[in-house]
């Protein structure tokens, strides 16, 4: 069956019990494939060497497929006074936002949503190389299914780099490699887009690729995704800490290569022991870009204990609280931005305000079926993180998409934070890491 069928029709709530992995044995997604849609040869249409039609001047892109992608977030009821509302508005207008993981894909309203918050600047990190933006966007005609082998493959990463770089000429974005690039994007009223990868399989045992891909724009690399690999432990394989391998010898060499290339070491999906080992071994501060708090959601493996994150913080690192309901509170499947603010506040009280940021990571332009093609997302992993609603932002009041950043500012004002501390949480801490490390 076609793994993109639900994407094209549009998906609402998806129950775990009905989800399954269905990938045609005849599907082909390798180099040399040709999928030419109607009008593929028309003047101005941009086609890659496999025949995919990329997003370009003719805006050949799949439209947003769920309503929550186009909703503009409304002010959430934090019970603020008129004075607090006025203060929040002023602070928001001076805020530089850095979302630690704003998307693992692309949807049509993404960048307009990010720019709709009234902030001074906005940007963040965008994951590349998951399964291929071109498999979801910018293509017509026959459809190619997502294969397990597409995930985190170097060919997928290269395709994604080309896809987003080609968008830059036609979108309100600036692709960034440094802190200064982000500041230039802000001055132009555009989104500052940094690239990251969330697994190391694409390396194919070649550490020289770390420097090579840093030069191509990858500022951050994650040691593992959900499963254990040759670098260390993944979060889904290590809920029993006695079975947590931590960083391997090979992983330490990878960290050394990242330090040398000035790439941020990321432990967002890693196991607890891998996170603390990475912090101890790295010569530079590291980041946990996007995860929940296990102290609040102990049954969810996509979380970290704050005691472990303290070891990351003590080395100058930052913990990005992820905006996924089940990682904010145990058993939470339909949340709101208030839960998000509460979790951020909880982390700040433990780690200190200099070491906490945020990452939305909940607006997905792929169908549930597509994500289920990943070897790192078997049925039991999906059940463990409470995916009863897909995409996760469905019914996430006040943060239906990236247009809700301003609500985080309002919520932090309601918690009594100073303007300086709000700026740190909303982006300053992660931008500091980029300035120091990259």
Distance between the termini: 44 Å
What's the CATH H-level homologous superfamily? Metal-dependent hydrolases
**CATH class category label:** Alpha Beta
Structural class: alpha/beta
CATH topology call: TIM Barrel
- Helix share bin: 25-40%
Q: Please give the number of β-strands.
A: 10
Helix and strand sequence: HHEHEHEHEHEHEHEEHEHHEHHHH
Largest sheet: 6 strands, parallel
The number of helical segments is: 15
Q: What do the pLDDT scores average to?
A: 84
Q: Over all CA atoms, what is the radius of gyration? A: 20 Å
What is the topological layout?
Layout: H1 5-9, H2 82-93, E1 96-103, H3 110-114, E2 121-127, H4 154-167, E3 173-175, H5 179-187, E4 191-197, H6 208-215, E5 218-222, H7 249-261, E6 264-266, H8 272-281, E7 287-293, E8 303-304, H9 306-314, E9 318-322, H10 325-328, H11 337-351, E10 356-359, H12 368-371, H13 379-384, H14 405-414, H15 419-437
Parallel strand pairs: 1-2, 2-4, 3-4, 4-5, 5-6, 7-8, 7-9, 9-10
